[in-house]
From TrEMBL, chain A:
One of its GO terms (biological process) is cytoplasmic translation. Gene3D superfamilies: 3.30.30.30, 3.30.420.40, Actin, Chain A, domain 4. This is Uncharacterized protein. PANTHER family: HEAT SHOCK PROTEIN PDR13, HSC70CB, ISOFORM G-RELATED. One of its GO terms (molecular function) is ATP binding. It comes from Penicilliopsis zonata CBS 506.65.
Length: 572, 63
């Protein structure tokens, strides 16, 4: 009713937020389209994966693909692979990725690059923060040009191991670029969000592995999705594994071929190596779709042109060791989460190197059939792995764009995010004859408080039924097949390749998950249910582990309710 | 809140001789919880944060 409520505040400009994924190798920008779909935006060159590279020639700044091309002619004034240096102490960084571009130097205790970034001959020391600001400014401009509207805010994705100093440095660098960081969110969670935000997605409890296979590093995470909320259960990182490891295989392969013909090693020539790397990467990417790819480089070394081809089978053979490192990392994180491959409902392949068909195929063989492997080569409806993080960030940006700064800060505060999670599943025990079975209603790792409702059938004739609410634990049941009778074995051996086969058959055991009822929590009766009726159970678990339980006949008048007290603190 | 899940499973008949006041009997308690951090993203988390900050229950929140 006051004056202010009627007048539009003049100061605060309208906030317009996008999603940004910022990698060492490439970055992407995304928005929610007018139709409500998350979409990655192409920059003026038409790139949706924009190399995180800046290059300077005569004071002019080049960005993205144009800058990356300068790694051949102008490596000293080209800055690449800098994201992981942000907010870090110079002593703690690994400078390896920058061997073929501007080298990181120490300024105070932080990281900088000595480059000629103006028209003058002077070499300037430009901090990684300033480089980040310039990169983000270009991304922001590309987004604004596409949307036709000023962009002044963003949700940016960061790796799960980004520490506070890195986060602060990124927020400050973005601010310098005129971007208000609404929130930093974790890359693998953004990937899950990208899938969950699709209109056809339903809210379902699931355990997801996100394999983010990038250029210079690979990061994997196990995420519990419970009632649409996400909790990271474990992470694992390999800072030396990524697309660049595969580039090296291609480089070595073609270099050897070149040496055979011309008796010189193109890798010993700086420019030759840079050309091999850039073109080799393109060849490798082409092998993600085609079964053959070519490489053609003018004046690779000593003025000799080089062109050749490689087929996918050859490439996969040469890369088998590196491929195994990717799948090892996936298995490692599952182990770290104290889970089994049988527990995993989905594997989301994210990051550029996830386009590699063989990696997804190898993962397919590790997991049981019911595990969905979300990668381009294993599922036609898979989203583009290179776009997941940015899309997820755009979804989150659209959700919080209208919130006050204070509102966002309070919501992401540890007071709100630190949450007790169920250790075991809570569900209902079913006994029929000898068999005792358990049907979970709330899964382990559900964040509290939580409430779930389910309906169950009753015996055909109706009558009074028993509801036993219990904790359940899943166990892995291993069944060894009966050893084969001798006769069969002998006949097997007559077949050509049977030796190998029958051995394998014998080894193969059946592994499955089974539920075991652990401890009973409450018992309830629903009296005189009519034939063909249904019973509805609602379990509400408080943050202090107290329960409220309600059962009723569906459509019935009265309900049975009760409470279970939270365990005594001394029990913990 | 998501609606009821429907399980195609038949509840057992009430055992002979089972009885309890108001047909409800608490027989145990839930195992100690694990403290973890929720990822502060997505619509469901935002609803969780809203309830927690305003100390509202699910049903109050739905009103
Ligand atoms: N279609 C493709 N097939 C195979 N590899 C691809 C494809 N597209 C991109 N890549 C590779 O993905 C890598 C870049 O992945 P991404 O964009 O996810 O990197 P990033 O997260 O920025 O990298 P970093 O791990 O260095 O932080 C590069 O090595 C690139 O060659
Ligand atoms: Mg990455």
């Amino acid at each position: 009713m006051s004056d202010e409520s009627n007048s539009v505040p003049a100061e605060a400009p309208e906030r317009f937020a996008i999603g940004i994924s910022f990698g060492n190798s490439s970055s992407s920008i995304a928005r929610i389209s007018p139709e409500g779909k998350a979409e990655v935006i192409a920059n003026e060159e038409g790139d949706r994966q924009i190399p995180s590279v800046l290059s300077y020639i005569e004071g002019e700044e080049y960005h993205g693909t144009q800058a990356k091309a300068q790694l051949i002619r102008n490596p000293k004034n080209t800055v690449a692979y800098f994201r992981d240096y942000l907010g870090k102490n110079y002593k703690s960084i690994d400078a390896t990725p920058c061997h073929q571009s501007a080298h990181p130097v120490q300024v105070d205790s932080t990281v900088a690059f000595s480059i000629r970034d103006t028209a003058s001959e002077d070499v300037n020391t430009v901090t990684v923060s300033e480089i980040t600001t310039r990169h983000l400014r270009r991304l922001k401009q590309s987004a604004a040009d596409f949307i036709g509207k000023e962009v002044n805010a963003a949700v940016i994705t960061v790796p799960t191991d980004f520490h506070d100093a890195q986060r602060e440095a990124l927020i400050a660098a973005a601010k310098e670029a005129g971007i208000e960081v609404l929130q930093l969110i974790h890359e693998p969670v953004a990937a899950v969000m990208a899938y969950d935000a699709r209109p056809e997605a339903t809210v379902a409890d699931k355990l997801v592995v996100v394999a983010d296979l990038g250029g210079t590093r690979s990061d994997v995470a196990v995420i519990a999705c419970r009632g649409g909320m996400y909790t990271i259960l474990a992470t694992a990182h390999d800072y030396e594994l990524g697309g660049a490891s595969l580039d090296q295989i291609i480089i070595d392969h073609f270099a050897k071929e070149f040496i055979k013909k011309h008796k010189v090693d193109p890798r010993e020539n700086e420019r030759g190596l840079a050309k091999l790397k850039l073109e080799g990467e393109a060849t490798r990417k082409a092998l993600s779709l085609g079964t053959n790819a070519s490489l053609s480089i003018e004046s690779l070394t000593d003025g000799i042109d080089f062109s050749s081809t490689i087929n996918r089978t050859r490439y996969e053979l040469l890369s088998s060791k590196v491929f195994a490192q990717f799948t090892d990392l996936i298995q490692q994180v599952i182990k770290k989460a104290e889970l089994d491959v049988l527990d995993i409902d989905e594997v989301i392949f994210s990051g550029g190197a996830s386009h590699t068909p063989k990696i997804a195929h190898l993962a397919r063989n590790i997991f049981p059939e019911k595990t969905a492997i979300l990668a381009p080569s294993t599922l036609i409806t898979a989203l583009n792995p290179s776009e997941l993080a940015a899309r997820g960030a755009a979804v989150q940006a659209s959700l919080i764009q209208e919130f006050d700064k204070e509102d966002i800060e309070q919501s992401i505060h540890p007071m709100v995010t630190a949450t007790p999670h169920l250790r075991n599943a809570i569900g209902v025990q079913f006994v029929s004859g000898e068999d005792v079975d358990f049907q979970p209603l709330l899964n382990a790792e559900t964040a509290l408080p939580a409430r779930r409702t389910a309906q169950y059938s009753v015996p055909k004739a109706g009558g009074s039924v028993f509801v036993r609410v219990c904790e359940g634990v899943r166990e892995i049941k291993v069944t060894k097949p009966e050893p084969k009778p001798k006769a069969e074995k002998a006949s097997d051996a007559e077949e050509d390749d049977s030796d190998f086969d029958s051995d394998e058959d014998e080894e193969e055991e059946i592994r499955e998950t089974v539920w075991k009822t652990d401890k009973a929590i409450a018992e309830l009766a629903v009296k005189d249910v009519k034939a063909g009726g249904k019973v509805e159970l609602m379990v509400h678990v408080n943050s202090d582990l107290g329960l409220q339980i309600t059962v009723r006949e569906v459509g019935g008048q009265s309900a049975v309710r009760g409470a279970v007290e939270s365990p005594k603190p001394t029990e913990n | 809140m998501a609606s009821a899940q429907v399980f195609n499973i038949t509840l057992p008949a009430l055992p002979e001789g089972w009885s309890a006041d108001k047909d409800f009997k608490a027989v145990g308690s839930v195992s100690a919880a694990t403290q973890r951090n929720l990822e502060p993203v997505g619509p469901h988390f935002l609803a969780h944060a809203r309830r927690k900050r305003h100390q509202r229950t699910f049903s109050e929140d739905e009103r």
